[in-house]
Write the C-alpha cells for this entry.
Amino acid sequence: MKRSLFGRLWPNATAVVLFIGFVFPVYWMFNTALKPTGDILSEDPVWFPTDITFEHFRTATDVDHFWTYVTNSLTVTVLAVVFSLMIALAGSFALARMRFKGRRGFIIGFMLAQMAPWEVMIIAMYMIVRDASMLNSLVPLTLFYMMMILPFTILTLRGFVAAVPKELEESAMVDGCTRAQAFRRIILPLLAPGLMATSLFGFITAWNEFALVLVLNKDAEAQTLPLWLSSFQSQFGNDWGATMAASSLFAIPILILFVYLQRKAVSGLTAGAVKG
Amino acid sequence: MKRKLIAAIGVAGMLFSVAACGGDSGDGDKKAGADGYAGETLTVWVMDGSSPDQWQKDLTAEFEKKTKAKVKFEVQQWNGIQQKLTTSLSEENPPDVFEIGNTQTPAYAKTGGLADLADLKAEIGGEWTESLNESSVFEGKQYAAPWYFANRVVLYNKKVWADAGLKDTPKTRDEFYAALKTIGDKTDAEPIYLPGQNWYHFVGLVIGEGGELVKKDGDTYVSNLDDPKVAAAAETYKKFQALSKAPKDKDEATPQQGEVFADGKVGAFIGMGWEAGIAIEANPKIEKDIGYFTVPGATADKPEGVFLGGSNLAVAAGSKKQELAKEFLKIALSDKFEGQLAKLNGVIPNKESLQTNLKGNAPAEAAAPAAAVGGTTPLIPEWAAVENDPNPIKTYLTAVLNGKTPAEAAKQVEGEFNKRLSQQQ
Amino acid sequence: MTVQTERPPSGPADVRKADDGGPGGKTPRAASRAGALAPYLLLLPACVASVLLLGWPLLKDVLLSFQNLNMTQLIQRATEWNGIDNYQAALTSEDFWRVTLRSILFTAVNVVLIMVLGALVGLLLARLGKWMRFTLLLGLVLAWAMPIVAATTVYQWLFAQRFGVVNWVLDKLGWHSMADYSWTSSQLSTFFVITVLIVWMSIPFVAINLYAATTTIPKELYEAASLDGAGAWRSFTAVTLPFLRPFLYATTFLEIIWVFKAFVQVYLINEGGPDRLTEILPVYAFVEGVGNQHYGMGAAIAVLTIAILLGLTAYYLRIVLKQEEDEL
C-alpha cells in the first residue's frame, strides 16, 4: 500500500513539533544558564547564547558546603539504589519463578507499598528518627530512599526475571549447576539490562527527594542537592541565571545516565511494565 | 581545683561565676572558670539580613576571647522558619541561641521551648525599653531578650525623582501619591515597587487608621478585617499598589524588592533601611542614588502608622549550654555590640540611651518619627499560627487588589483566619 | 570463580527437571522441605525492610492521627490522645471534601491526558523512519530524565511573569494581555502550568513503553487480520489494542499513583496557592500538618489520603488479584 505524500509527511512533521516541545524546556534551562544576565532579562528573548558565560555556574557552586551536598547526594542515592536492587533481586526471583503459598499476597503487598504517599507521612518519619537520635545523619535517609524505590524495583524486576526463558535455567541445572549457580551464571547476565533500567528509576527518585531531607537534616553537613536547588530562589531572588545553572548541574548526571542507558531502559521497562 | 581557678581569674571571672550560679544547667563544674568552656561550640541562629558580617565577626572575636568557646552563626530564612524552629526545639541539639520575631515570641513562650531568662533580665535588662520588652514577657515570665526593632521607611531613587523634576520629599499621603504619579508620567521608571503581599506595610496602615486586625469575642480572638478602618487601610494600599507593576500575589521577598530596585528603574519602595544593602550588593552604583524618608501619613503632622517589627534573642530550653548561651547574650546585648548593631543596620536598639548611635544614619533618622506611632500585631500566643503560610492577611490583600471589595475579601478569609486564631494549642 | 561441588545433582532430580521442561512447563514443582522455605527466605529482606521502613511510619502516622499534637506537644514530646477528634474535624470540614474532589479531578484530567497523548506519541514512534524515531526518542528521554525539582524550577522560569518566554510568545502571537500575565495568580492558570509540567514529564514513560510494547506484537497477527479483510482501524482494535491491554492497565495504574502523589510539582510551583485553591490532598495534609503545625490533624488527613488512593486503585488491584490466580 503506497502512502500519499501527505501521509508520509505528517508523522515526520508532528515528530519535529513534538521533539521541539519536549526538548525546549531542557534547552532553555541550559541556554539561560549560559548567557549573561543582560540577555536573560531582556524584553525579547535571546534564543541562542552567543555570548557564553560561566558566571552563573560560579554563583551557583560558590555556596558553602556545595561539595558536601554533592557527596551526600551521590552517597545516599547510590547506596539506596544498590541496596534496593540486591533486596529486590532476591524477592523478585521468588515471585517470578517459584510457586508458594501467599505469593499473591506478597505481590499485592508490594503494589500497596508502591502507593505509599511518603510526603504526607513525613512528620511520623521525623518523630521516629528523632526519637532514635538519628537526625542529621545519612543513614535513615539512605534506608528510607531505599524503601521508596523498593516496591517498584521488585515488581519491575519480577517482569524481567519472568522474561528469561525458564528452559535456560533448567538446562543449566541439567548441566550440573545448582540453582544458585544457574542464577548467577545464566539469569544474572540476562538480567543486566533490566537491572539498569530499574536502577534508573531508583536513581532519579532518590536523587530528587527533598521533603524528607528538609525535615530530617537541618545540619548543612548532612544535606543534599535538592535542598540546595530549592533554596536557590529564596537566596538568589530572581537571579534566573544562577537558578538555571543550578538546575542544569543538578540535571546533568541524570540526563547523561538516561541517554547512555536509554536503549536498555526502554526494552527493560516494557518487560516490567507489562507485567505490572 | 574550683577554688584555685576562681582565685586565678580575677575580677571579671568573679562577676561571671557569680552570675553563673543563678542557673541550673548541664554545664556542671565547667561554669567555674573561663577556661571551662574551651572546646564547646555555641550555635546561634540569626535571620537573613538581621546582623551584619562585621558585627558577627567582632562579636565572635570578643566571645571567643572571653569564654574560650566557639560560636557558630547559622543564617535562617524567614520563610518556613516556624516549622524549622518548632522541630528543632524538640530535638536533642536545638540551636542554643536564636533570633525570634516579636510577633512569634508569645506562642513559643507558651510551648515551653524557651528558657526562662529572669536572671539575665535582672542582671542586664534594667534599662530595656519597656514597650520593646513587652513581647518577651509571657504570663509574667521573661522568655526572651529584646534585641532590635525597626520600622519601614520609603527608600527612593534620587536620580529618578530628579528626572521627574521632584525636589522635595512628600509630607502627606496625597503629596506622596502625586509625586509617584509624576514619576509615572514623566519618566520610564516604575513609580513604586509594591508587591501585593507586603503585609507588614498593610499592618502599618491599619495601625495608622487606628484599627485592629483581631477583636475579642468572649474568650477567643476573631477576625476584625471587616472593620471599616481596616477597609480604609486596604483602599490606601490598593491605590498605591495600582502604580506598581509588582505581582499582586507575592510578598516583598520574592523577588527581593531591593534587587528589583537595584536596576535603577524603580522610583521607590517601602522597606527596611537595611534593604538598601541588598540593592547595593546587587548593583554598587546605586548607592549614591538611594534616599530615605518617613512614610507620609494622612496629614503632615503625623507620619503614617508603621508595623514595629523586631526580634528578640531567646535561649532554647533544651539547650545543654544554658550558661554559655547566657554569656553570649550578655556580650551580644552589651552596650558595645547593641550600639554597633544599631549603627550598622540603622535599627532601634533595646535601650534609649543607645539611640545616639543612630545619629547621622539616614534610614534610621527617617524611621524614627514613625516609630512613635508604630504598633505590632496582637501579642498573643494565638497569633503565630496566622503567620504560617498561606497567611490569610496576604490572601485578603491579594483579593482586594484583584478587585474584591474589602468587605468581600474580609468575608472570604474570615473562616481561615478564625480557624487559626482558635487553633488548639 | 570456584565451582561448587558439594551437592552433585541426583538422578531422580534430573528426571523431574526434565519433566518440568516439557511443553506444560507449569506443573507445580515437587519441592523438598528446604525448597518450600526458599521463596520466603528470598522475600525476607524485602519484607523486613517494608515492615520497618514503611509499616512503622505508617503505624506511627495512624497513632498520631488520634492525638492532639501541636507545637507545644511536639516540643515537649508529650502524648495527648484525643480520640477521633481529628477525623471528625477533617471529615466535617468543607475544605477537606473540596480538596478531595479537586484531587480526584486533577488526577483524572492529568492521567487521561497523559495516557491519550502518550499512547498517540507511542503509536507515532512506531510509524516513523529510523532517524526521525531516534530524534524523537532522544527528546522524550531528555524530558523524562529531568529531575522533578529541576524541571519545576525551569517551568517557573518559562512561565515567569517578567521575562518569561511563554508570555513573550503569547504576546507576539497577538495576545497582548498576556505580556505581563501572572500565571500563579489564579486557580486555573496555576493548574494549567502544573498540568503542562506533569504531562510533559509523564508522556515519555507511556510513549516509550507503548512503542516498545508494539514492537513485540507478532507480525503474524496482523497478517491474519488482513487476510480476514480487516482495515487499519479494525486491525488496530482487533490486534493492537487487546495485545496492549495489560500494559495499558499497568501504566494507568502507575500514572494514577504518581499524579495523585504529585506533591513536589504542586508545592514548588505555587505552594498550593493562590488562596489554597490548588492544594491537592498530599499538599493539603502537608499544609495543615507541618505548615500549620497541627501535626495530629495532618496525620489524620494523611490516613484519609491513603484510603482514598486505595479506593481509586481498587479496580486495578482486583484485576491483578484475579490475574495472578491464573498465572504460573
